[in-house]
Specification:
The complex is a heterodimer.
Chain A: H1 26-34, E1 66-68, H2 69-88, H3 107-129, E2 137-139, H4 141-161, H5 172-199, H6 228-244, H7 247-274
Antiparallel strand pairs in A: 1-2
Helix pairs in contact in A: 2-3, 2-4, 3-5, 4-7, 5-6, 6-7
Chain B: H1 26-57, H2 64-77, H3 80-87, H4 94-113, H5 122-146, H6 152-158, H7 162-187, H8 204-234
Classes of the chains: A mainly alpha, B mainly alpha.
Chain lengths: 290, 244
């Protein structure tokens, strides 16, 4: 039995180590390949320390074509950044030809472009320098699904915000100012949480610990919420919706909120399962509510 | 689309032999029997209405008007089937059932009802006929299944008629949407233009075209699914081995 890494990079029937009886048929061995039995092992587990006797049976599961998380994140975030700017600069074939390469006369449109671009640059930098991923890879089909989502919505939002017939927010400067404050507050908050989560985990490790509030006031929300990164993300997009007063942005916010709630509930549940002493006051994503 | 074709197991109750899930309770069964009987009767009324109108007028034109009200009533009533799935008394996917019922309701209200000019088109008769025959068979199939007394003829019909009814319905639907296009474009029906304070727009004309295009990937998938289901359910007619 060799100790090669199992799971992630198998494509077809590569290295399978299975304990079988001599009279097992090939068909039976093949079906064992596809069954996932027993405990799922971690990469760090050492063979010697596994709870098995002198013979062990390993089941390998083909996870299908994989792609690294970093690649997916970089691709899905670069799209919106570039696409939005194309609409902002009104490159040809989007709006009527007389508007090609013109700029909007509303200053909130410039502000929105700065905020949107800042948001995705922040995400790209976090992907490269901040996040410590638990898994190296995800299924390949995810990149198509994710990019369609991010790129599609970015184009849809950007089309209206940068449209020659765009209507600025009803309550004018007041509304935009409030929205900007909310947006910036939540961007800083989201970043603070990412840093706090990174610091929970030593470089190269995949340990999981309960996150707690740190000296940074933006992390004090950990007292009430398991996944404040999602809470702040929702806040950022609410801010952007308010700033642009654009229905497609509101749709994007709602859809994102639904997805993040699903993730937050899952994360919250696994925290509860893994840690006996998990703080009971915390909710998954919205304090006391959700 | 005429996706609730005979034998669509996506809308179906468990008509595959071995999947004996714990079914609905006695009260739910009674309700479902009544529901399916009423729907069978409703679509029979529509069928009879079509035949009588044809005999009275002596032509195929304008038959829509003679069955307009029962068509709207019973097709819209099918929305209840989404509820049945959501509540769990019918073992089908809410999403799939929802999609199929909504597409029918869309054609009934958002196209045929909304664009008066297409109501006299022959394509309307084409899809209404397809839907009528399909639904009479489908609802009687469910009725008999619930009563555990399914005549083979009904089962056979459900999994055979679709060969013709499906393409017939799809053709009628597509031609009707196509006929509606110029009127939608001219009147800007259901469309929102810029500028407005929500910074949103919607072009119903483009939406209808996209809907028509979506038939291209969707129809073959559903059609071939039906063919596979047919092999599974009726397969034992040809070879005497047990259905998988």
């Amino acid at each position: 039995m060799n100790g090669k890494k199992q799971g992630y990079y198998l494509s077809l029937c590569a290295c399978v180590c299975v304990c079988v009886e001599p009279n097992a048929t090939i068909g039976e061995i093949k079906s064992m390949f596809h069954k996932s039995q027993g405990k799922s092992l971690k990469d760090e587990d050492v063979l010697q320390h596994l709870p098995v006797g002198t013979t062990a049976t390993f089941y390998f599961r083909d996870l299908g074509a994989q792609i690294s998380w970093v690649t997916v994140f970089l691709t899905e975030y670069t799209g919106p950044l570039v696409i939005y700017l194309m609409f902002y600069f009104r490159v040809p074939f989007i709006y009527a030809p007389k508007y090609d390469f013109t700029t909007s006369k509303h200053w909130v449109v410039h502000l929105a472009c700065m905020c949107h671009s800042f948001h995705y640059v922040k995400r790209l930098l976090e992907t490269l320098f901040v996040h410590r991923f638990s898994h190296g890879t995800m299924p390949l089909r995810n990149i198509f699904k994710n990019c369609t989502y991010y790129w599609g919505f970015a184009a849809w939002m950007a089309y209206y915000i940068n449209h020659p017939l765009y209507t600025p927010p009803i309550y004018g400067e007041q509304q935009i100012r409030l929205a900007l404050i909310l947006f910036l507050f939540c961007q800083i908050g989201n970043f603070s949480i990412h840093i706090a989560l990174r610091n929970l985990r030593p470089p190269g490790s995949k340990t999981r610990k309960i996150p707690y509030p740190t000296k940074n006031p933006f992390t004090w929300i950990f007292l009430l919420v398991s996944c404040p990164n999602y809470t702040y993300e929702l806040g950022s997009w609410l801010g952007f919706t308010l700033m642009t007063q654009c229905l497609p942005v509101a749709f994007f916010t709602v859809v994102g909120f639904v997805q993040m709630t699903v993730w937050a509930k899952g994360k919250h549940r696994s925290y509860l399962k893994e840690f006996r002493d998990y703080p009971p006051l915390r909710s998954p994503i919205l304090p006391f509510v959700l | 689309m005429s996706a609730a074709a005979p034998g669509t197991s996506k809308t179906g109750h468990s008509d595959v032999v071995q999947k004996k899930k714990k079914g609905p309770g006695a009260l739910a069964t009674a309700y479902l029997v009544i529901y399916n009987v009423v729907m069978t009767a409703g679509w029979l009324v529509i069928a009879v209405g079509l035949v009588r109108a044809y005999l009275a007028r002596g032509s195929y034109h304008g038959l829509y008007y003679s069955i307009e009200k029962p068509l709207k009533f019973f097709q819209t009533g099918a929305l209840l089937e989404i509820l049945h799935c959501a509540v769990g008394i019918v073992p089908s996917s809410v999403v799939l059932t929802g999609f199929q019922v909504m597409s029918r309701v869309f054609l009934t209200w958002a196209v045929t009802h909304s664009v008066r000019e297409v109501q006299s088109e022959d394509s309307v008769l084409l899809f209404v006929t397809a839907w009528t025959v399909t639904e009479i068979i489908r609802y009687s199939f469910y009725t008999f299944s619930l009563l555990n007394h399914l005549p083979y003829l009904i089962k056979w019909a459900r999994y055979t008629f679709f060969f013709a009814l499906y393409p017939m319905g799809v053709t009628g639907e597509l031609l009707t949407i196509y006929a509606a296009l110029p009127f939608v474009q001219k009147t800007g029906l259901y469309s929102i233009t810029l500028p407005n304070k929500y910074n949103f727009s919607f072009d119903y004309y483009t939406f209808l075209i996209l809907t028509m295009i979506s038939y291209i990937p969707l129809f073959p998938q559903l059609y071939f699914h039906m063919i596979r289901q047919r092999k599974k359910v009726l397969g034992h007619v040809d070879d005497y081995s047990k259905v998988e």
